[in-house]
Write a structure and sequence with these properties.
The protein is mainly alpha-helical. It is built from eight helices and four strands. The longest helix has 15 residues, at 2-16.
Length: 175
């Protein structure tokens, strides 16, 4: 009788509290999975490695991601204060498809002189691609940007700029 009661109590506790909820409470920086997300895309969005994402979520390449699931991501760290021109260009190349990267580099050169921490004089537009945060803040969380200051991170800015390109079906935001 006692063993049956303990087994039943254990089963109820497992059914009542899904593992993802327990994990989310321990996670200080969570991302809610959306349709089309993959471990790799979440790692890219969070500006971290795939191995770190796997480790923090106790996952591997075979672990499925469910829409609405809370995925723990490491806290975003600030990039180094100074990056060489070559490093900035490589960041842009990493974020953009090969056939678009030269034009993207030219736009970042025009918009910010390839300076990741550039902020325009009216304080509306941030980073390499001078993204207008208030105008785009409704969809920027989809790429991991939840504050204007995060657009000063060159990796996040380049990823957000590419997403802007996709949303606009072209270079219109920079015309």
């Amino acid at each position: 009788m006692k063993k049956t009661f303990i087994a039943a109590a254990l089963l109820v506790s497992i059914l009542v509290i899904p593992p993802s909820d327990v994990h989310a409470k321990q996670c200080s920086n969570a991302y809610t999975a959306k349709r089309g997300d993959s471990w790799w895309s979440i790692a890219q969005m969070a500006n971290t490695s795939l191995n770190k994402i796997f480790r923090i979520n106790n996952a591997n390449t075979k672990t499925r991601i469910l829409i609405g699931e809370e995925i723990c991501i490491p806290a975003v760290t600030s990039p180094p204060q100074t990056l060489s021109r070559a490093q900035v260009i490589q960041i842009i190349r990493d974020a953009w498809p090969d056939d678009l990267e030269e034009k993207a580099i030219a736009i970042a050169q025009r918009e910010s002189n390839l300076k990741p921490r550039a902020v325009n004089s009216s304080k509306c537009c941030y980073g390499l691609f001078q993204i207008y945060y208030r105008w785009h803040k409704t969809w920027l969380p989809d790429v991991g940007v939840t504050s204007a200051s995060q657009l000063l991170n060159p990796q996040l800015n380049a990823v957000a700029a590419y997403r802007m390109y996709q949303r606009s079906n072209g270079w219109r935001p920079w015309k």
